[in-house]
Amino acid sequence: MNERNGFSVAGIPFVGLCIVLAAIGIALVLPAAQGQPAASAIAGVILLAIDGFMLKGFFQVAPNEGQVLQLFGKYAGTVRHEGLRWTNPFCSRRRISLRVRNFESGKLKVNDNDGNPIEIGAVVVWQVLDTAEAVFCVDDYENFVHIQSESALRQMAQSYPYDAHDDGKPSLRSHGDVINSHLRDEIQTRLGKAGVQVVEARISHLAYAQEIAQAMLQRQQAGAIIAARTKIVEGAVSMVEMALDQLSQRGVVNLDEERKAAMVSNLLVVLCGERGSQPVLNTGTLYN
Hints:
Layout: E1 9-10, H1 11-32, H2 38-54, E2 58-61, E3 65-71, E4 74-79, E5 83-86, E6 91-97, E7 101-104, E8 108-111, E9 117-128, H3 131-136, H4 141-157, H5 176-191, E10 196-208, H6 210-250, H7 257-272
Antiparallel strand pairs: 1-5, 2-5, 3-4, 3-6, 7-9, 8-9, 9-10
Helix pairs in contact: 1-2, 4-5, 6-7
């Protein structure tokens, strides 16, 4: 079912028409009270009844709002024109907001692609695009949006790992744009049948579950330490290599292989150590 324009006309001219009908009806009823023929009084009463019935057809449409019309249970169209409107008094009306709305899902506990329990939440920005589908295709479109958004969030979270173990594979923590786009598309697929457009969807909360948070924190710390140590060792080896080349090129000292090994060992200890080195004066030689 698709939305279509419902019948309505500007309400201000009909206000004037109702006032004229009321005045005529009163003018016909008043002489009957003074002993005039009853036919005019009956006509006046009929006019007043018709006028009162026509008043039921007035309604207001606010900006970014739609009024869904139903005539004896059948969809009669949607009115989006702002201001005072008038339509068939037999039509029932339901107000639907077309404004942009948002909500934040609760913290959901799901398993990521690696099977690790995580907590995840999202903010979804949405608006009604088709009022007919929103009213007649689902029972409660607002509740439908909330439940289906959380379902899509669960589905998306199970498709990615929390951390990227492979540089070419996106993860929940490191690839925000990819994850948000996937989440928006997943929610839109589910809400399309309700006439709802998803404007934006973003992850608002992401963390490991409490039972594994400490272990995963230690894992991250270990990874950071290994990465830092690797960088330090690479720099230290480069510095030692540069020192040996400079000594050899300038002829400062001639070192055999055993003395070079001792010098490399000492330099690596100094450069890779966590604490400041303490100099030791050697009064002998390497061989005694």
